[in-house]
C-alpha cells in the first residue's frame, strides 16, 4: 500500500537520513519543499527569485504559493502510484488543511505525521560538531527558536487530527529507523 506521510524534525535531528531510509523501505517519493525552492532559485525562475529573498530572511513563503507547488507535484503519476514522504510541508495549519483537501480529492488521506524528537541540547551539540562557519551557537539558537515558533501550531494540528507520532530520535540510525517503522507500520495496519 502506498504510504502518505509527513516528517517533522529540527535541524540536526537526523531527518535527512531517516527520509532516505523511509524512501528506500516504503518506496514512496520524497518531496522536500526546501529542496524544490532551492532548485528554483538555482534555475533563476521567478519563483526562485521571490522565494530566495524570503528564505534569506528566514520567513515562510506564502501559503498559496506553497500549496500550488505541492498540489501540482502531488498530482503526478509517480506519487499517485507510490505515495509520498513530505518533508518541509506542511509548515502551517493552513497548509495542512489544504493538504488534507488535496489528498481527499484524490481519494487518499494522510497516514501519519512522524515527529523526530531530539532534544535541543543534543542538536546544538551535533550542529556545532559539524563546524560550519554559519553554525555559531547564536545562529543555531536563532534557527532553532524560529523552527519551534513556526512548528508548534503544526504539531497541535496533527495532534488534533489524531495523526501525530513522536519518535525518539536519539540513538543510532538503525535504532531510530526501527522506531519509525514500528509507528508507520502500525498506522498502515490499523489506519487509526
Ligand atoms: P527547509 O529546507 O525545509 O528548512 O526550507 C528552507 C526555507 O524554504 C524555509 O526557511 C522557508 O523559507 C522555505 N520553505 C520551505 N518549505 C516551506 C513551506 N512549506 N512553507 C513556507 N516556506 C517554506
Which key terms come to mind for this protein?
alpha/beta, 62% helix, 9 helices, 192 residues, Rossmann fold, binds adenosine monophosphate
- CATH-assigned fold name: Rossmann fold
| Low-pLDDT runs | none
How much β-strand is present in the residues? 5-15%
CATH class: Alpha Beta
At the fourth level of CATH, the homologous superfamily is P-loop containing nucleotide triphosphate hydrolases
N-to-C order of helices and strands: EHEHHHHEHEHHEH
| Biggest sheet layout | 5 strands, parallel
Strand arrangement across the biggest beta sheet? 2-3-1-4-5
Summarize model confidence as the mean pLDDT: 95
Question: What is the correct CATH architecture?
Answer: 3-Layer(aba) Sandwich
Question: Which class of secondary structure composition applies to the elements?
Answer: alpha/beta
How would you describe this protein?
- The chain has 9 helices and 5 strands.
- The protein has 192 residues and is of the alpha/beta class.
- The chain has a single domain, classed as P-loop containing nucleotide triphosphate hydrolases (Rossmann fold), CATH 3.40.50.
- It has a 5-stranded parallel beta sheet with strand order 2-3-1-4-5.
- The protein binds adenosine monophosphate.
- The site of adenosine monophosphate (AMP) has 13 residues, from α2 and α3.
Amino acid at each position: 500500500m502506498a504510504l502518505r506521510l509527513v516528517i517533522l524534525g529540527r535541524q540536526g535531528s537526523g531527518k535527512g537520513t531517516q527520509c532516505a531510509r523511509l524512501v528506500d523501505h516504503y518506496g514512496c517519493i520524497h518531496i522536500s519543499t526546501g529542496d524544490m525552492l532551492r532548485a528554483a532559485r538555482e534555475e533563476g525562475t521567478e519563483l526562485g527569485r521571490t522565494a530566495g529573498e524570503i528564505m534569506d530572511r528566514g520567513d515562510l513563503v506564502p501559503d498559496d504559493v506553497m500549496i500550488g507547488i505541492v498540489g501540482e507535484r502531488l498530482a503526478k503519476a509517480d506519487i499517485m502510484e507510490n505515495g509520498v514522504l513530505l518533508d518541509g510541508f506542511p509548515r502551517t495549519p493552513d497548509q495542512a488543511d489544504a493538504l488534507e483537501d488535496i489528498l481527499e480529492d484524490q481519494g487518499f488521506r494522510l497516514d501519519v505525521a512522524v515527529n523526530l524528537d531530539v532534544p535541543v541540547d543534543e542538536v546544538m551539540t551535533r550542529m556545532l560538531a559539524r563546524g560550519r562557519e554559519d553554525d555559531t551557537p547564536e545562529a543555531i539558537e536563532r534557527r532553532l527558536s524560529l523552527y519551534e515558533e513556526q512548528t508548534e501550531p503544526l504539531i497541535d494540528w496533527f495532534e488534533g487530527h489524531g495523526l501525530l507520532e513522536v519518535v525518539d530520535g536519539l540513538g543510532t540510525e538503525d535504532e531510530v529507523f526501527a522506531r519509525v517503522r514500528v509507528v508507520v507500520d502500525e498506522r498502515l495496519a490499523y489506519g487509526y
